Every structure is written in structure tokens, then in C-alpha cells.
Amino acid sequence: TLSDVSANSPLCMSYGDPTNPSFLLSRYGFLDMSSPATFCKILPAHVSEEMKNLGYAHNKMLFYKDTGDVSEAVWDILLYIGLGESDASLQRQFYDAHMHANYATKTAMHEQYYPVTAAKLAEHIDTFLVDLQELQEKGQYGGNAVEHPRLPLIMRHNEFV
């Protein structure tokens, strides 16, 4: 701490971003089940500067645990990717609206292209759930907690995310 602490005062240590339980598990070996959200695990082959400007970051691309909400950054990135696959000029229009804080245009584009974004989100979730199911099955049928002592913790992590 950089300041005086009075006697009998609690000291707390931050292990980093509370919205990334995967990082806490891999770095420190524990799972914080109280985390309100988790990184959505959308991992494009290339993250452009435009995507970073739209909010692509592990602490912004979130799925919220208790409500099931999806952060604005996830919706923005998915729409940006979806538009880029079909019409680069629309992708640029969306990006420019974001960068110039033109929320009316940005909102209108989200509404107009919601089916594109929703399909991208569903595709990501479906693929991720299949991957998690395969990992769970591997852990249950091919895993041995004596041989792999962290296996139960990893399986709890996979259930959490």
C-alpha cells in the first residue's frame, strides 16, 4: 500500500480483473465463483485496431453470469464481423458511427442487422458449448483426479463459463 493503514484494518489484495476467472485459474490456481461476468471467449483470428476501438478487450467482451446479459462490446464486435463478411461499406459505416458517437445510426444498424448479430452469437455459443461438453466428457471418462489433481477445479471452471 502507498498510504498508512491503521491497526486492525483489513488489507485486501487484488488478483486482477474480476471478470476473467479463466485468468485467475491459470495464473493463481483458483476459481472465483463470485465473478459477476466472464470473458465471452470470442477469439477472432486477427483483432484489428478497429475491433479494439469498438471495445474488443477481455474486460469488455462479457457474458454476465446472473442475468445472461451480453455486453455492448460483444454486440458491436459481432455486428462488425458480420457486416464485414457481407458488405465492407456497411462495416465502415457502423465503425464510423461508433467512433463519432453517432448513437442514432449505431442503434439503427443494430436493429436492422439484428438477425446477423444474433446468428453470430448463437453460432459462437453453440460451438463453445460443444467444445465444453467434449472437455467435460474427456474429464469424466478419461480423467483421473489422482493423476490430474486440478481436473475437478478445471471442470468446475468449464461449468462456470
H/E element sequence: HEHEHHHHH
- Overall form: flat
- Helix fraction? 55-70%
As laid out across the biggest beta sheet, the strand order is 1-2
Distance between the termini: 33 Å
Query: How is the quaternary structure best described?
Result: single chain
Rg from C-alpha positions? Answer: 20 Å
Strand content: under 5%
In the predicted model, the low-confidence regions spanning at least 5 consecutive residues are: none
Secondary-structure content class: mainly alpha
- The number of helices is 7
Which whole number gives the mean pLDDT? 86
Largest sheet: 2 strands, antiparallel
**Count of DSSP E strands?**
2
Describe it for me?
- The chain is mostly helical and 161 residues long.
- It has seven helices and two strands; from the N terminus they run H-E-H-E-H-H-H-H-H.
- The protein has a two-stranded antiparallel ribbon.
- Helix 3 runs antiparallel to helix 4 (88-99), helix 3 crosses helix 6 (114-142) and helix 6 (114-142) packs antiparallel against helix 7 (151-160).
- The longest helix has 29 residues, at 114-142.
Quick summary:
With 161 residues, the protein is mainly alpha-helical. The chain is built from 7 helices and 2 strands.
Task: Give the topology, please.
Layout: H1 21-28, E1 37-39, H2 49-54, E2 62-64, H3 72-86, H4 88-99, H5 103-112, H6 114-142, H7 151-160
Antiparallel strand pairs: 1-2
